[in-house]
User: Which sequence fits this backbone?
């Protein structure tokens, strides 16, 4: 079992400049917090062959694949069809979702139409993940090779609701051995990124088992240290060394 | 010559939830405006083999590949090395960039360090694209197979400055035949997406050569019609039909 996940977002509007895609950030943050890792984030157009090949390649690389978008009632919503074709599965109508859609529409003073009930279409092997804030449900599809495919609606509030209510709890239980990386941050100000590098290189600073990330912005530099929980001591030592080496440049009141 | 482009953004911070990646939206918008099309947007970690394979696959699919991030002076900045390895090219120091970096640092009351001058490293065949708002320049690399690779720094203000100042003008000249799609928008309110679909389906509305996108939010639905400029008449007809069919639901005062 590996701890890596990929995200594939589907939608022409994400590639034309109309809509900013925030799923990668939100999913990356949610997975990191439980010790899993988003290892690739891909956005593709509403095109059945492209969806098929992109999902297939992701399932080759990692155990967990998230697909978002294209689950609505309109003709540009083709994700279900693309996945059914790729996986050789039938599309079925999920009756509890039909009932849910009826009451969802009634509450809004509307009648559920045939078009609306298209959103109750799921893959035959799907575990349906009810959507508490919108119409189309999510789906968890456990494949014969042990890999798991999650299918989520595109609107960020629906994506995030199903993720936090239905998927993260399942992942925490299923990947109970996963442990989040330890992260610590050293913030500096009034010194450039390359001057920091010079100081660290002259001091021979090259911590083992600790990843360093440098994020400059507006006269400040954030240094992020990341380590596996087995290497907590090395992380703490690296952080202390940075504090010593950069003592005159620390941004302590952030 | 095809009109499709792919973007590959590099950086662990884009996959951990630390940083929201806005390049896909900005590049997608800029390319659409000149008749080119962003056809895939991929974010990957700071890892040399992953960068190599992702860029290689993108160059297989399309004529224009944009790579962003990992061009700073620190040890997590490995994009140049990954591309040099993939393309079998040497990395050289661009002397005009060294001079620029010297004056850039001097203006900020700092001395340019050896670490800082790493940002003047470019691929041997690169056309250097000066950065008017930051340190590391962009690069345009024209490959023997007629494809073009653009390399851009990660910070959005630098990415966008080099894009608009150096790359879009070059693309407009090089792809002078490209014509932007025609786009028009019909906005509705007080009617659900699936009710709109029902109305359109009952009327047999299925315009040829016009792509439809439905974007619901907060009681409103935006319908975007997109067509090749050869099909302007069909786009106008489709828009007029939508106005008739949805006449009681139009959101005219947006």
Assistant:
């Amino acid at each position: 079992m590996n701890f890596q996940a990929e995200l594939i977002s589907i939608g022409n509007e994400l590639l034309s400049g109309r809509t900013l895609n925030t799923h990668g950030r939100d999913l990356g943050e949610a997975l990191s917090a439980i010790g899993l890792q988003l290892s690739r984030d891909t956005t593709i157009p509403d095109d059945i062959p492209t969806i098929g090949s992109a999902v297939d390649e992701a399932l080759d690389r990692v155990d967990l694949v998230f697909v978002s978008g294209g689950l609505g009632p309109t003709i540009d919503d083709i994700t279900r069809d693309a996945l059914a074709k790729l996986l050789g599965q039938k599309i079925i109508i999920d009756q509890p979702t039909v009932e849910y859609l009826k009451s969802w529409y009634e509450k809004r003073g509307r009648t559920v139409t045939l078009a609306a009930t298209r959103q109750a279409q799921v893959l035959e092997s799907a575990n349906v993940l009810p959507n508490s804030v919108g119409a189309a449900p999510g789906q968890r599809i456990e494949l014969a090779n042990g890999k798991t495919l999650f299918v989520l609606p595109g609107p960020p509030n629906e994506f995030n609701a199903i993720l936090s209510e239905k998927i993260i709890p399942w992942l925490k239980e299923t990947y109970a051995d996963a442990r989040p990386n330890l992260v610590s941050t050293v913030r500096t100000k009034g010194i450039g990124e390359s001057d920091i590098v010079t100081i660290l290189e002259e001091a021979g600073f090259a911590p083992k088992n600790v990843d360093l990330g440098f994020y400059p912005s507006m006269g400040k530099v954030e240094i992020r240290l990341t380590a596996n929980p087995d290497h907590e001591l090395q992380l703490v030592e690296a952080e202390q060394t940075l504090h010593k080496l950069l003592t005159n440049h620390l941004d302590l009141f952030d």
Q: What stands out?
A: The mean pLDDT of chain A is 94. Chain A touches chain B through 61 residues (CB under 8 Å). The longest strand of chain A covers residues 37-44.
